[in-house]
Write a structure and sequence with these properties.
The chain has 461 residues and is of the alpha/beta class. It is 30% helix and 22% strand. The radius of gyration is 23 Å and the shape is globular. GO terms for molecular function: nucleotide binding.
Length: 461
C-alpha cells in the first residue's frame, strides 16, 4: 500500500459516532488508515516566516529541517549556538550569513529585531531568559518543552506573552500527532460514552534512558529539570487534552533504583572503553554508539569522516557518553508513577518506565459505552453495545523521517501550524499555546512535590 497516496474520503460509524472529518482508506473489514485533514484556518502565505534558532541541537534541527523542506513557509535566518561544530553545520544547512551567527542567545538580542520569530531549543535551564527577552523585543516564539524549570518562571512567561500580545507556541507535539488527534475526536464525539478512567504508559526504552537521563544532558535534575517535566510533561499534557478535563489533584511515587554505584558490576571501569565486563553490560556505550551507531549525532562527528567507529570510540574516551551508567552524578528517577484526579470524577494513572525494550506510548481509556486501546501505531475502539472493534492506523507526513522520535508525526504538523499562526498573527491556529500548556507544567511541578513529600497535592491554576 502506498502510504503517500491521496486517501479517499468516506464515513463510518463507531459506536454511535459518525466519523467523516478525516481522509480515510479501508485496509480490511473494520480497519482504516487515515490522515488528519488540513487545518481549515490555513491560508496562502504572502512570504515565508523568518526565524532565528537558539540552540542547534536535536530539537533545533528538527524545526530547522521543516524550514529546509518547506522554504516557502519558513526560513531560518539566524542561529545562536556555542558549540562551533553545530553552529557551522546549522549555518551551512540554512545558508545563514556570518553576521547572523551568534555564540550565545544574549548576543542575538543585542541586535534590533531581524526576524519574525525565535525558536528556543536551548537546554531546559536556558528557556526563561531568551523567551522573556524575545517577547520583550516583539518576536513570536516557538518554545521547546518544558517551558521553564520553575513554576514561577512558567507563569512569568505566560504573563509576558499576555502583556506583549505575542504568540508563544509550546512544543507539546503530541497534540499534533494524528494518533492523539483521532483519540481526542473520538472521545469528544462520544465513541466510548462518558470517560471514566485512563491508564497511560510511557516506556522510555532502556538505552534511551541511559543515553539521555543517565549519561546525557538531562542526567541531573538540579542542572536541568526533573524527568517528569523533561520527559513526561508531554504525557501529563496529552491526558488532559484528549479528555478535555481540568486536573484537580495529583500524587506521585518514584525513585532512582538501578543506575547508581552500588549496582555497578564487579571489576567494572569508570568508562566502557576500559571496562573488563563491558561485553556483558546491556548499557555498553561501545555497543550502543560504536557498534550499533545509535544516537551518535550528539558526538558531533563530521559527515566526511570515513571511519566512524574509530571516531566514536575516541569520543567515548572523553565525553559523558562513554562513562559507566553506574558511576555518573545522575539523580533522575528511573521509574515514576502518578495518579491524577480530573474533574467530573475521571481518574488517571500514568507510569514512566526506563526498563523496557521498546518505546512509543501506550494508552487505555475506559468509557461507559466502550474502551480504546492504542500504542501510537494503531488505535482500537471497542463498542460494548455491538461488541465490534474498529482499528485506526495513522499516517503522518514526517513519521518516516522521525520514526524514532516517539512523537507520531507531530513535529512538522506543529511547525506548519506555528508558521501559519505567525503569518496570520492568529494564535487560534495552535492547540499548544502557552495558555493551554501551563496546566500540564503545574501538574508536573506538583507531581514532583508529591514524590518528594509523600503528600497528595492540589493543582491550582
Amino acid at each position: 500500500m502506498n502510504r503517500r497516496r491521496l486517501l479517499q474520503s468516506l464515513s463510518l460509524t463507531v459506536g454511535a459516532t459518525v466519523i467523516n472529518s478525516d481522509l480515510l482508506a479501508r485496509i480490511s473489514e473494520n480497519e482504516y488508515e487515515y490522515q488528519i485533514a488540513n487545518n481549515p484556518l490555513h491560508a496562502p502565505m504572502a512570504k515565508a516566516v523568518t526565524a532565528i534558532t537558539l540552540g542547534a541541537g536535536n530539537r533545533g534541527s528538527v524545526y530547522g529541517n521543516f524550514a529546509a523542506k518547506f522554504p516557502n513557509e519558513m526560513q531560518v535566518v539566524g542561529v545562536a549556538e556555542p558549540n562551533v561544530f553545530r553552529n557551522d553545520k546549522y549555518a551551512a544547512r540554512h545558508k545563514i550569513s556570518a553576521e547572523n551567527r551568534f555564540n550565545t542567545w544574549e548576543d542575538v538580542f543585542k541586535r534590533p529585531k531581524f526576524a519574525d520569530a525565535v525558536i528556543i531549543s536551548t537546554p531546559d535551564n536556558l528557556h526563561y531568559g531568551p523567551c522573556m527577552k524575545a517577547l520583550e523585543m516583539g518576536y513570536d516564539v516557538l518554545l521547546e518543552k518544558p517551558i521553564a524549570p520553575t513554576e514561577k518562571e512558567c507563569r512569568d512567561i505566560l504573563a509576558m506573552a499576555k502583556k506583549t500580545g505575542r504568540i508563544v507556541a509550546v512544543c507539546h507535539v503530541l497534540r499534533y500527532a494524528p494518533y492523539f488527534v483521532k483519540m481526542k475526536e473520538l472521545i469528544a464525539k462520544g465513541a466510548i460514552g462518558e470517560v471514566i478512567s485512563i491508564q497511560h504508559f510511557e516506556p522510555i526504552e532502556h538505552t534511551h534512558m541511559a543515553h539521555s537521563y543517565v549519561r546525557g544532558n538531562w542526567h541531573n535534575s538540579k542542572q536541568t529539570t526533573p524527568i517528569i517535566l523533561a520527559k513526561s510533561c508531554h504525557d501529563l499534557d496529552i491526558m488532559k487534552w484528549v479528555i478535555n478535563k481540568k486536573s484537580k489533584s495529583i500524587v506521585a511515587m518514584g525513585d532512582l533504583k538501578w543506575f547508581k554505584k552500588q549496582n555497578a558490576p564487579a571489576n567494572s571501569g569508570t568508562r566502557c572503553v576500559e571496562c573488563a565486563v563491558e561485553r556483558d553490560c546491556p548499557y555498553s556505550a561501545i555497543k550502543e554508539y560504536a557498534e550499533r551507531g545509535s544516537r551518535i549525532s550528539v558526538l558531533d562527528i563530521p559527515a566526511n569522516v570515513t571511519d566512524k567507529k574509530t571516531a566514536v570510540l575516541e569520543k567515548l574516551k572523553t565525553s559523558n557518553y562513554g562513562r559507566c551508567v553506574y558511576k555518573m552524578d545522575n539523580d533522575q528517577p528511573d521509574h515514576y508513577i502518578t495518579s491524577i484526579q480530573f474533574e467530573d470524577q475521571v481518574t488517571a494513572n500514568f507510569s514512566m518506565e526506563a526498563f523496557t525494550s521498546y518505546h512509543d506510548r501506550r494508552t487505555r481509556i475506559m468509557g461507559s459505552m466502550g474502551d480504546m486501546v492504542g500504542d501510537m501505531t494503531e488505535l482500537v475502539v471497542n463498542d460494548f453495545r455491538t461488541r465490534k472493534a474498529t482499528k485506526f492506523k495513522p499516517v503522518a507526513e514526517d513519521v518516516e523521517e522521525y520514526k524514532n522520535s516517539g512523537h507520531g508525526g507531530g513535529d512538522h504538523l506543529l511547525a506548519r501550524d506555528f508558521v501559519q499562526a505567525v503569518s496570520q498573527q492568529n494564535a487560534a491556529l495552535l492547540t499548544s499555546t502557552i495558555d493551554e500548556s501551563i496546566e500540564s507544567h503545574v501538574m508536573g511541578f506538583m507531581a514532583e512535590a508529591s514524590r518528594k513529600s509523600g503528600n497528595v497535592m492540589d493543582i491550582k491554576l
